[in-house]
UniProtKB/TrEMBL annotation:
Annotated organism of origin: Providencia huashanensis
Organism superkingdom: Bacteria
InterPro entries in the record: TPA1/OFD1_N
The protein's name: 2OG-Fe(II) oxygenase family protein
Domain Prolyl 3,4-dihydroxylase TPA1/OFD1 N-terminal: 129-214
Pfam families: 2OG-FeII_Oxy_4
Amino acid sequence: MGISKHNKEFLSNGYTSFSIKDFFPEFEVNLNLINNIEEDKWSFIIKNRRGVSDFYLSDTDIESINYEKTIAFEDRDNGEFSFSFRRICFDEIKIILVDLIAVVDDVKFKDFLWSITGKKVNMISNIYLSKFDKNDFLTTHCDSDDGIGIVINLTKEWEANYGGLTMILDNEKKEILETFIPSYLNILIFDTKKRKIPHFVSTVTSNKISKRMALVVRYNEKN
């Protein structure tokens, strides 16, 4: 599927997905570098009825973190928006993944996003590396921002049986329209400004050593 077809898909649905290698065959990620990031660099970001917080092992004991997770599980089961996963925010990944950030912040890549979305993007408004361990999840929500978002999956050989699938729902949030397996270097591009796209990430059920990881980037649209 060429750029014009992805452009039509984005304009029709508010999102499109494909292998980034289709258009950037030189795109590479140092997985050894990512897989060897120290545990204390990853936060546990948890949203439950008590609020949303990043917890670090350097200042919060694991029992307290697991307690916050338990509340998030309860909220999920009661139909409330909640989530639990790991992440590394910009201040850390700008040092660890400087080459990868340089690619997604490059004019060539932004022009590529423009050709797909019809939106000229300006600065990166948010960027982080996410990791879903066993039992991590993200319930149904719509991302709201001032431009577009992208998710680039960074895990090899991930299977649907492991969970961690991105599910796109209809506007009534009753029917699953599309399911994306987080395949390696697959990119999901979605509108965060003009479209409401309900979606969720299903609970990860696997203890696989290589975790479900992704680079998440938000761009502001130029006025």
